[in-house]
Amino acid sequence: MFSKDFSVGLTYRDPDESNYQKMPFNGGVIFVAKSQKEQAIQFLERVYTLYQTQYSHQGTWWGDQYAMLDAVGQENFHQRSSDLLHVDNAKVQLLPCSVYNFSPNNKYRAIALGLADKKIIHFKGPRKRLMPIYWHAYLNPRECSGLKRIFSSVVNWINLLSLTFQEATPTGLFLIAHTLKK
């Protein structure tokens, strides 16, 4: 990620999401490249000024994201030919939320496969309940070594599978059981 030449990295939503046109950015993750921190600071100061002057009445929700879009420019964003935009002196790297700011569905089965292709998993809102389960199933075992790590991984994965079964519909349980028989 930081081998790329950029000042600021912003994550953008999937174009199929309903609010993509009005609010394509998710302010939950912002990257700043140390090598271009002055340009990054200038860009983020611009975002802050836009927020203060135009969106502070929106309080804690969405104002920052509208300000980001204004700082980048709607036309600049929506008609881009690459995911690297030049905004004043800053190089703004656009990164898909689907990889760099991913929010799983609020179901245990959404995290059952580990999400190894995701760089940042954003457990926002009610999804926070999934955090400890994900931690124990995929991250905590890394602190162990050898057989203890393997055993811990298996136990935690079985616990996650059990929770997945509990939230499954009867049809889903049948499909899972049928798959396990093979």
Q: What does the largest sheet look like?
A: 4 strands, mixed
Low-confidence stretches are: 169-182
The neighbouring-strand order within the major sheet is: 2-1-4-3
- The total domain count is 2
The end-to-end span amounts to 40 Å
What proportion strand?
5-15%
Helical region count?
A: 7
Structural class: alpha+beta
- Based on CA atoms alone, the radius of gyration comes out at 20 Å
Shape: elongated
What is the average of the pLDDT values?
A: 80
Order of helices and strands: EEHHHEEHHHH
Query: What is the helical fraction, as a range of percent?
Result: 40-55%
**Total number of strands:** 4
Give an overview of the whole structure.
- With 182 residues, the chain is α+β, with helices and mostly antiparallel strands.
- It has two domains: 8-100, no CATH class; 108-117 and 125-181, no CATH class.
- It contains seven helices and four strands.
- It has a four-stranded mixed beta sheet.
- Helix 5 runs antiparallel to helix 6.
- The protein is elongated, with a radius of gyration of 20 Å.
What is the compact description of this entry?
The protein is of the alpha+beta class and 182 residues long. It is built from 7 helices and 4 strands; from the N terminus they run ββαααββαααα.
